[in-house]
Automatic annotation (TrEMBL):
<protein>
    <submittedName>
        <fullName>Thiol-disulfide isomerase</fullName>
    </submittedName>
</protein>
<feature type="domain" description="Thioredoxin">
    <location>
        <begin position="52"/>
        <end position="202"/>
    </location>
</feature>
<keyword id="KW-1015">Disulfide bond</keyword>
<keyword id="KW-0735">Signal-anchor</keyword>
<feature type="signal peptide">
    <location>
        <begin position="1"/>
        <end position="24"/>
    </location>
</feature>
<dbReference type="InterPro" id="IPR050553">
    <property type="entry name" value="Thioredoxin_ResA/DsbE_sf"/>
</dbReference>
<dbReference type="InterPro" id="IPR000866">
    <property type="entry name" value="AhpC/TSA"/>
</dbReference>
<keyword id="KW-0812">Transmembrane</keyword>
<dbReference type="InterPro" id="IPR017937">
    <property type="entry name" value="Thioredoxin_CS"/>
</dbReference>
<keyword id="KW-0201">Cytochrome c-type biogenesis</keyword>
<dbReference type="GO" id="GO:0016853">
    <property type="term" value="F:isomerase activity"/>
</dbReference>
<keyword id="KW-0676">Redox-active center</keyword>
<dbReference type="InterPro" id="IPR036249">
    <property type="entry name" value="Thioredoxin-like_sf"/>
</dbReference>
<keyword id="KW-0732">Signal</keyword>
<keyword id="KW-0413">Isomerase</keyword>
<dbReference type="InterPro" id="IPR013766">
    <property type="entry name" value="Thioredoxin_domain"/>
</dbReference>
<dbReference type="Pfam" id="PF00578">
    <property type="entry name" value="AhpC-TSA"/>
</dbReference>
C-alpha cells in the first residue's frame, strides 16, 4: 500500500536543555533514584519531535541530489554518492532522543525485510546531539542495530541533508539519483518505511 502523501511539514523543535541532553545520553544505568535516571525521566517528558507525518515527492518534484559524507562509527569513510543507482535510507538519531530509541527496533525490522526484496537498498544512521562515537556505538550494540551509522560531526551532515532533517528522529529515502524522494518527520514504523522504499523503487 502506497503511503499517504502530505504537504511539506514544518519541523518541530527540540526543547531539551543541553545539560539534560548530555546527562541523559551518558548512561542507560539507574532508575529514577539516580541523578541520571531522573534526568532521563525529565527528558522523556520534555522532548518534542515530529508526529510521524509522511512527505513523498514525485520524480519531477525532487530537488538536487544529496551529497552526504562522513565517517562511520567503525571508522570507515562513507559517501552517499557511492550508492547512486540504489535507494539509500538515512535516519537521523540520538540515543538521548526517546522516539529515536523507540523506533530503533522498527528500523532494524525494515532493514532486515528490505534486504530480502529485489531492491538495492542501503541504510545509514546519522548520529547527532554531541554523542561520542563510543557512546553511539555502544547504544547500537545494545539495541541490536545491524546497519551502520555515521558519527556525529557537529551538524555538518545535517546541512548536507538540505535542511530536511533538523530534528531527530527524521528518516529520508533517497532515490537512485540520490534525491530526497520521501521523508518521515518523527517516529516511524517498519511497515511505513518498507512501503516508502517499495514506492520509491516502483517510481524510480
Amino acid at each position: 500500500m502506497t503511503p499517504r502523501s502530505t504537504r511539506p511539514a514544518r519541523f518541530a523543535a527540540a526543547t531539551l536543555a543541553l545539560p539534560l541532553l548530555l546527562l541523559a545520553g551518558c548512561t542507560d544505568e539507574g532508575g529514577t533514584n539516580t541523578v541520571a535516571g531522573q534526568a532521563r525521566e525529565v527528558a522523556d517528558r520534555a522532548y518534542n519531535s515530529g508526529d510521524g507525518r509522511i512527505e513523498t515527492l514525485a520524480p519531477d518534484e525532487r530537488g538536487e541530489p544529496v551529497e552526504l559524507t562522513g565517517r562511520t562509527l567503525t571508522g570507515e569513510d562513507w559517501s552517499s554518492v557511492d550508492h547512486r543507482g540504489g535507494i539509500v535510507v538515512l535516519n537521523v538519531w540520538g540515543s538521548w532522543c526517546p522516539p529515536c530509541v523507540s523506533e530503533m527496533p522498527e528500523l532494524e525490522k525494515a532493514w532486515t525485510t528490505l534486504q530480502k526484496r529485489d531492491h538495492k537498498v542501503q541504510f545509514m544512521g546519522v548520529n547527532t546531539g554531541g554523542e561520542s562515537p563510543a557512546t553511539a556505538a555502544a547504544f547500537l550494540q545494545r539495541t541490536g542495530t545491524s546497519y551502520p551509522s555515521l558519527e556525529d560531526d557537529g551538524g555538518v551532515a545535517l546541512i548536507a541533508l538540505q535542511e530536511k532533517a533538523s530534528t531527530p528522529p527524521t528518516t529520508l529515502v533517497l532515490d537512485t539519483q540520490g534525491r530526497i524522494a520521501a521523508r518521515v518527520v518523527g517516529e516511524t514504523t517498519a511497515a511505513t518505511l518498507t512501503g516508502l522504499v517499495d514506492d520509491v523503487a516502483a517510481k524510480g
